[in-house]
């Protein structure tokens, strides 16, 4: 169960990083 929670947390953080990167890239274009 702990591994699953950690995996979900990593996925959420990765999604946030990707969205911020895409937003900054699109604002630069």
Structural class: mainly alpha
Percent strand = under 5%
- The structural domain count equals 1
- What sequence of helices (H) and strands (E) makes up the elements? H
Strand tally is 0
In this structure, how is the largest beta sheet organized? none
Helical content band: over 70%
Oligomer: single chain
Low-pLDDT residue spans:
none
Task: Describe the fold and architecture.
This is DUF4044 domain-containing protein. It comes from Paenibacillus catalpae. With 29 residues, this protein is mostly helical. The protein has one domain. It has one helix and no strands. It has one helix at 2-28. The chain is rod-shaped.
Provide a compact summary of the structure.
This protein is an all-alpha fold. The protein has one helix and no strands.
Topology of this structure?
Elements (H helix, E strand, L loop, with lengths): L1 H27 L1
Protein name: DUF4044 domain-containing protein
Keywords:
rod-shaped, mainly alpha, 93% helix
